[in-house]
Design brief:
Largest sheet: 8 strands, mixed
Number of helices: 25
Radius of gyration: 27 Å
Number of strands: 12
Structural class: alpha/beta
Length: 696
């Protein structure tokens, strides 16, 4: 049986051209987004003091509105800082506790306004034990008090600095309630932390900005290497956006701030502040939250990268545009998804009522548009939509337009096999993007922005779900072409295509996705075994599972052997496991996965995912003759569908996104499958030779 006969070779040629276009599109964005892979300048020496000036709520709009702060831009390395902490919002106490611990801490009470910072009474933070207990309650693993316990001469000014510099028992020394320029210059003040106070929301904000600029000037006069950062939001319900980060004086001229935590020019995170203060110093081994040993610092030393920045106004506008880039994707994701769903429902109703060829094509087009959406969310980044007028609406139009264009091109060129072109194009696009450092994903609808702070580089859960479906469908198509010639060659094709996805997804610096390879590796191995042998015993199934675990463990252990500051998520997890400090991490991930069942949406997703999985195991129970005929039409249909189910199941059980990851996989794979079945004029009676598998 031939997968592609002479009559279908034209379809395959078109498919290859589609893949070529996807590769070209990914390569084209290197020019516009390639700065993400710029090599940082690390030959940077600190001056006599590191003076951190923390200002809750300091935004780039504040800089734009203040001549005094604007004047600092051309005198600074600049960037934005994400102040995400362990809790649902970042009040000032959350931010300062995070600086104290060097990892994300939880200080505020959920669903309550931000309270005042605790007072210092008799040299001790009032209610300190409450904050210690809060870390244990929420399993943050944050060793609050670590910065103050280091033993180095760091002085503090203001209530926030007291929280940041408190020891593990809450005691504070070398601290003053108000800023003192003379104290800053004293020998006892090696480094310093200054709480400049939150900017008032109404009257008095201009004066507060001037006061911040004056503090910077006084710190510089003390021969200080000044780091001015927005350390938290002003209030619990404040507009969530990355805040201001400036470092003065600028080494070798103003450039973009960055760190190895984000690997993005112009972006750092709050925990990088602690890592910078403790540069080349021993980190105190403390953990008052109850664990045996504190985990490593979450942050990395702040440095700078990129070309010189010479225009303060252009820099400020760049930061404001970047905030739009991070703010708009999530709400527009909902808007685009609802638009496509509404179009599908309308087209389905028309098709069910009329059964006309035009209604059939329209319904198929809407299904393919949903498939194209999983490519458009990445390609839209290449349009730099955040610099357009009305960025949110521009993103909405761009993603819908690209989704529809991909669907139309695939439908016109490949007819009933359009789904295959979309799957293969997504596979190639994500592989190329991963190797290039994921420039298409940063700030896309499928990536948590800096406000969420979950991931700054590599593949997120939504991206992995897209890649997994695309890789397994592509592997099924390639294996089907080879299976009549040699089952062994077909199985090797599955291993090669699936293995490439695993490598790109898991390699540190590319996908850097530990959870993803845990799910994809057993799915690829199972699919390869079924391709080779046609069936699988329980013993072989256990062997496949063990092989997957060993492969992932080997990758993680090799990463652990690298220097600590070069490890990715893999090596860090192994380090925590060996130190007995992994329980909090696992509990937090479990809580994140379970939280989706707090409302009906999570349960609805679970029902849908389970039904889809059961359809791959019990095809005879599916009330669709077209699907039942399709399931048995080609040798590779069953292995591909089972591999998709295994990947979705393992991902749901082991990933912190839980059922959402499986729902995204279903949302990509199912419309493509239905589009293929509906596009076939007589799907229940089509000969096996006309089915292109690859249809999963």
């Amino acid at each position: 049986m031939k997968l592609l006969g002479p009559k279908n070779w034209g379809h395959f040629s078109v498919l290859l051209r589609t893949v070529a276009i996807a590769v070209a599109a990914a390569a084209a964005v290197v020019g516009s987004a390639g700065t993400a892979s710029a090599q940082p300048v690390t030959d940077q020496s600190l001056l006599a003091k590191v003076v951190v000036i923390g200002v809750p709520g300091l935004t780039w709009n504040d800089v734009k509105a203040s001549p005094e702060l604007t004047a600092l831009v051309n005198q600074s390395h600049v960037g934005s800082i994400t102040v995400k902490t362990a809790g649902p919002h970042t009040c000032p106490v959350d931010g300062w506790l995070t600086v104290s611990a060097g990892t994300r801490a939880w200080g505020s009470v959920p669903d309550q306004p931000c309270g005042d910072l605790p007072a210092v009474t008799d040299g001790k933070i009032a209610g300190w034990q409450t904050y210690v207990d809060r870390q244990a309650e929420h399993h943050t693993g944050a060793p609050i008090g670590r910065l103050g316990q280091t033993g180095y001469p760091i002085c503090g000014f203001g209530p926030g600095a007291a929280v940041a510099l408190a020891r593990t028992d809450g005691t504070v020394n070398n601290w003053l309630p108000e800023f003192s320029a003379s104290r800053l210059t004293s020998p006892d003040c090696g480094d310093a932390i200054v709480d400049a106070g939150a900017l008032p929301l109404g009257e008095g904000r201009d004066e507060a900005r001037k006061r911040v600029a004056d503090l910077v000037a006084q710190a510089r006069a003390a021969d200080g290497w000044v780091l001015l950062v927005g350390v938290s939001q002003e209030t619990a319900d404040a507009h969530q956006e990355p805040l201001v980060a400036m470092q003065l004086p600028p080494d070798n001229g103003p450039r973009w701030l960055t760190s190895d935590s984000t690997r993005r020019p112009g972006l750092i995170q709050l925990t990088d502040v602690t890592a910078t203060i403790l540069k080349e110093r021993d980190v105190a081994e403390v953990d008052p939250a109850g664990a045996e040993k504190a985990g490593p610092l979450d942050g990395n030393e702040i440095h700078f990268t990129g070309p010189r920045l010479t225009d303060a106004d252009a820099v400020i506008e760049n930061r404001l545009d970047t905030n739009e880039r991070f703010e708009q994707p999530r709400p527009m994701l909902v808007a685009v998804s609802m638009t496509i769903l509404a179009a599908e429902l309308i087209a389905l109703a028309w098709f069910l009522i009329t059964r006309s060829p035009r209604s059939r094509r329209t319904f198929v087009f809407t299904l393919l548009t949903q498939g194209g959406f999983f490519i458009a969310v990445f390609l839209s980044t290449a349009t730099v939509w955040w610099r357009w007028p009305a960025p949110g609406f521009s993103l909405y139009c761009v993603v819908l337009g690209i989704s529809a264009a991909i669907a139309a091109a695939a439908q016109l060129a490949l007819k009933r096999y359009a789904f295959l072109g979309i799957a293969v194009a997504a596979y190639v696009l994500l592989l190329v993007d991963g190797v290039l450092g994921t420039p298409l994903q940063f700030g896309s609808m499928f990536t948590d922005g800096p406000v969420v702070g979950g991931r700054f580089y590599g593949f997120g859960n939504s991206t992995f779900a897209t890649l997994a479906v695309a890789a397994l469908v592509t592997a099924g198509w390639a294996a089907q072409r080879l299976i009549d010639k040699s089952r062994k060659q077909a199985a090797l094709a599955v291993l090669a295509i699936g293995g490439a996805a695993i490598v790109v997804d898991g390699r540190p610096g590319w996908g850097t996705d530990f959870g993803g390879i845990l799910a994809l590796t057993p799915a690829v191995l199972l699919m390869a075994w079924l391709t080779w042998r046609g069936s699988i015993s329980w013993r072989a199934l256990l062997g496949v599972g063990a092989a997957g675990v060993l492969a992932v463990s080997a990758v993680a252990f090799l990463d652990y052997l690298r220097p600590e500051d070069e490890r990715s998520h893999f090596g860090t997890f192994v380090a925590r496991l060996l130190d007995g400090d992994v329980s909090d991490v696992l509990i937090r991930k479990l809580e994140m996965a379970v939280q989706y069942f707090a409302g009906p949406a999570g349960w609805a997703m679970l029902v849908g995912v389970v039904l889809a999985m059961l359809a791959t195991v019990l095809p005879d129970r599916v009330p669709s003759p077209a699907y039942q005929a399709f399931y048995t039409s080609l040798p590779m249909v069953r292995p591909t569908l089972l591999a998709l189910s295994i990947c979705a199941l393992v991902g749901m059980l082991l990933n912190d996104s839980g059922v959402v990851l499986s729902a995204i996989m279903t949302g990509f794979a199912l419309p493509l499958l239905v589009a293929h079945l509906v596009a076939s004029e007589q799907p229940a009676t089509v000969s096996p030779e006309s089915h292109l598998l690859q249809e999963s």
